[in-house]
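TICKET: design request
STATUS: open
ATTACHED STRUCTURE:
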C-alpha cells in the first residue's frame, strides 16, 4: 500500500473507534490493527494519537467552517445590496445546514458522534484544539447574531449559542435513540429539510426568548 493509502486507512479506522469508545478508550494498537498498519504508523504519519484525532477534527470542522462562512458572506453581501436587514432564521440556517446536509446523509462520516463523545471525555489538549479550530466561525457568527437579539447580554448570547451547538450535535449524533426513548419511534427526523426547519425554529425561539 502507498503512504497516502495507509494514512487514510488510519484516519478512517480511528474516526470509527474514537466515536465508539472516546479518545482514552482506545489504544494505538487498536487503531493500527483495524487499519491493517504497523504499530509505528500513527506516530510516523500524525506524531501521536492526539495528533491523529486533531487532524480528523481539523478536516471536518475546516470544511464546515468554509461552507458556513461562505453562506454568511452571501447573506451579508445581499443585505448590503438590497438594504434589507439580516434575519435570525437565515443566519441560523447558514450555520446549521452544512452540518445537517453533510452528516445526515446515509453513509456520511461519524463526526457528530465523535464530537459528542469528545465533549463527554475531554482532554486539555483536545479542548484547546477544538476551541482553536472552531473560534473563527464562532466569533463571526456571534458578531452577526448579537445585533439581531439586542436584548441579550454577552453571557446570555454565549449561553444560548452553546445550546444551539448542543442541540445540533445531539440530534445528529443520537437522533434515532432519542426518537425511540422520547416518542416511541413515532418521530424520526431523517429528512434533512424537515430536521433543519424544526431545528432553526427551535433555536431562533431560544435566542428570542426574554432574559
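STATUS: resolved
RESOLUTION: sequence designed for all positions
ATTACHED SEQUENCE:
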Amino acid at each position: 500500500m502507498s503512504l497516502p493509502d495507509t494514512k487514510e486507512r488510519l484516519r478512517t479506522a480511528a474516526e470509527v473507534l474514537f466515536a465508539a469508545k472516546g479518545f482514552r478508550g482506545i489504544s494505538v494498537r487498536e487503531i493500527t490493527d483495524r487499519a491493517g498498519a504497523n504499530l509505528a504508523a500513527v506516530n510516523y504519519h500524525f506524531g501521536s494519537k492526539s495528533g491523529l484525532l486533531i487532524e480528523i477534527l481539523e478536516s471536518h470542522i475546516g470544511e464546515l467552517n468554509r461552507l458556513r462562512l461562505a453562506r454568511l458572506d452571501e447573506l451579508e453581501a445581499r443585505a448590503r445590496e438590497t438594504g434589507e436587514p439580516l434575519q435570525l432564521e437565515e443566519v441560523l440556517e447558514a450555520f446549521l445546514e452544512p452540518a445537517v446536509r453533510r452528516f445526515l446523509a446515509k453513509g456520511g462520516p461519524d463526526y457528530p458522534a465523535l464530537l459528542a463523545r469528545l465533549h463527554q471525555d475531554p482532554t486539555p489538549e483536545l479542548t484547546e484544539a477544538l476551541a482553536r479550530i472552531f473560534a473563527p466561525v464562532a466569533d463571526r457568527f456571534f458578531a452577526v447574531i448579537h445585533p439581531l437579539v439586542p436584548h441579550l447580554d454577552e453571557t446570555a448570547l454565549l449561553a444560548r449559542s452553546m445550546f444551539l451547538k448542543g442541540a445540533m450535535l445531539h440530534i445528529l449524533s443520537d437522533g434515532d435513540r432519542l426518537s425511540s426513548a422520547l416518542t416511541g419511534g413515532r418521530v424520526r427526523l431523517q429528512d434533512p429539510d424537515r430536521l433543519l426547519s424544526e431545528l432553526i425554529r427551535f433555536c431562533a425561539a431560544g435566542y428570542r426568548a426574554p432574559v
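CLOSING REMARK: The chain has a mean pLDDT of 89. The CA atoms of residues 29 and 39 lie 6 Å apart.
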